[in-house]
Amino acid sequence: MEITDEKIFKIALITSLIGLVGMIIFASTIEVKEIAIGEIDNGMVDEKVALTGVIDSTKTSKSGETMFLTLNDGKNKIPVMVFQSTLAEFQDAGVDLNSYNGKKVKIYGTLTQYNGAMELILDNSNSIKLI
User: Do 64 and 86 fall within a single domain?
Assistant: First the structure.
């Protein structure tokens, strides 16, 4: 049996299709890691996580393009950044982020490091849920 370019191409195509179907099937079962703020370390940069706590404060930047939230889980705090594109999503939905002040929430986002400190970037307007 001789292996030709055509056979290799068919095997590669079938393998790729099986991989894509597998990714589609299993994508809904992948969950974001839920952690406590105190468990965050520098090695977690660019990881998507879920954090639970109370919004201690909300502050808008001078330009109005960014909003800063402070999430407190009772032991530790972390700043949460909400950038212009996500703020626009909230505005389109008629949601004021200041209304979350003092309320317990679960926030999904991406951990980043800024000036040596860890912070969470809110992914989109569906990434914050009241508990």
Answer: yes
